[in-house]
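Suppose you are handed a protein chain with no further information: no name, no annotation, nothing but its sequence. What can you learn? This example shows the usual starting point.
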Amino acid sequence: MRLTWIHPEDLIGHELRQARQDGRAVEAIARRWHDAGGHDAPPMAGASAEPAAPPLRRLAEDLLDELAAIRSPIAAWEPTELDAIIAACPDWPDAPLAAPGPDLAERLRGAWAGRAAGCVLGKPVEKIPREGIRAIAEATGNWPIRGWFTARGLPADVAARWPWNRRSAPTSLAENIDGTPEDDDLNFPMLGLALLERHGTGFTTDDVAQMWLDELPAGRIFTAERVALRNLLVGLVPPETSVHRNPFREWIGALIRADVHGWVNPGDPVRAAALAHRDAVLSHTANGVYAAMFAAALAAMSLTAEGPEEALAGALRVVPPRSRLAVAVREAADLARGEPDFERVLDALHARHADLHWVHSINNAAAIAAALVHGAGDFGASITSVVAAGWDTDSDGATVGSVVGGLLGADGIPEQWTAPLHGRVASTLTGFDGITFDELAARTRALVVPEASG
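A reasonable first move is to predict its three-dimensional structure. Written in structure tokens, the prediction is:
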């Protein structure tokens, strides 16, 4: 057995890639690593096949620390501290942008159900690249994607070339869906709900850390979250947990935790973003934190906005406009507005972000924005578009489903996307296994701040 996402010899390649993306000069360090026999980052999984010999592992640890000491030249316009983020946002709102209406409970039900449906759609094809997703869908008569993925009628050669995500496909294919299967993209919002119920909106990052220690099995979390949990267990405290030998600190993990912070602040992207920031800095920095703030603000706006464009505009106000994430989101939205063929939009996005890992925050946030604009409030069109993008398919499907579900309300989501889920979610989190969307929405509604709830 070889654990993923924690070994220094596997982390170093990811850190070198991250360093190049944020403008640090690291070629001398990269040469030392490769001259010693070190390998590049595993392209898909989180561990190489074989462990490194002790001398190579020690070198990896030393080089990780050297890389951490090199300051990024773009750090000035990609800060992590909340005060600096606010200062970098000229359109940061000074008040809520809208107040929730009498349909808040219905919209919250739609947000939870939509998140679940989008997640389940993307689960079987997680880690499969865009071309493989299309091949599977075409071979089963589901292209353009318009329904759940299926193994029925899938030719053996296509299945062999593009194998399903074995962990999730058995419970998320059309022929097998019976309720919403467990997924980290649903566990984290439920854990966030429990956090808010235990501590209220005044929770601290230390409270988030304690919730993780109390509730999260290490084998059910990945990338930055697994590194941060490891760092907690060796005695580090936030925010050091987010930066110590953590090359995944700008990946998508904090984004998938953020929706609930928006749902308890309907129409108020500032309060939503502030809560998401407090949660995110346990494991993430810079664009990884902005992704969480962006997602929380989208979730907040989805409960009051008339459509996705209004939600997107409100969410962008809490992201530093010069940051790579904000630039990518704006570019993606503009592409989707100007190009009716979404495959052409995806061609451009994949060309633009070819250097990013498939679970980085920037490319996935861009896909989310493009799908929201292209889908124009149509639930099926929105979630199928973002899953067709082929990056973090279940996470992106969940976020897009959450936003459009919040805009439409539960009754506005076509039954084909909700009926197989039976209104319930499986989970290993304490007290959440088999919980219904109705109960999740009611518990979320109870946490909405009084001045926002009318």
